[in-house]
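notes to self, project folder thing:

trying the whole complex as one job this time. last attempt i did each chain seperately and stitching them together was a nightmare. two parts in total, labels are on each line so i dont mix them up again. if this works i'll redo the older ones the same way
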Amino acid sequence: MPTNSDRFAKTPEPPYYAVIFSAQRTEGEHGYGQMAARMTELAVKQPGFLGIESTRDAEGFGITVSYWSSEDAIAAWKQHLDHKPAQEAGKKVWYVDYQLRVAKVERAYGKVKS
Amino acid sequence: MPTNSDRFAKTPEPPYYAVIFSAQRTEGEHGYGQMAARMTELAVKQPGFLGIESTRDAEGFGITVSYWSSEDAIAAWKQHLDHKPAQEAGKKVWYVDYQLRVAKVERAYGKVKS
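result (full assembly):
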């Protein structure tokens, strides 16, 4: 039985913020995997970063939810200079369509084995 | 190039609510696909339902985000009698781990071709 508990973000008690990013990938790799890994590595180091959950199916439709302590932390990450080229390439090369939503998490429950 | 624009929820201008459900599936089918399809069909008909986005990778890690007009609409769907058996089977049979977060969407942007 798969456990995969590291796929879940270990977030604190709410309130905190979520960035819900849904995207349909274009066909072909175009350096996506490498850049995505680098962006996650960088995001994790940002002030206010709380965690990330991400998955994508065989059709290339993916959802990534990153969790942050505040809206300011989200704004700072959006403006981060090393993040900008990835955002541009996302719009131009990697994503057919995408949608980004910023939301305030008010309640959370579940069961995640540690 | 895949378009798959129907995979995106066509939500109105914020504010509205999101239920972010992350889950690791157990191995084996155990009637999951049929129940999941039936629950989506039923959710779509509920008052206040705005849309749903869902994806799962080959490891069985999935994220489903459903969008709702209000917290009351979310509470009513949680309590819906036909939804309860699926919630129970989720905990006991289908999910190794899961996490559910209720969040208020404050901002949204993106590019989705219709």
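what i see at first glance: Chain A touches chain B through 49 residues (CB under 8 Å).
need to look closer tmrw
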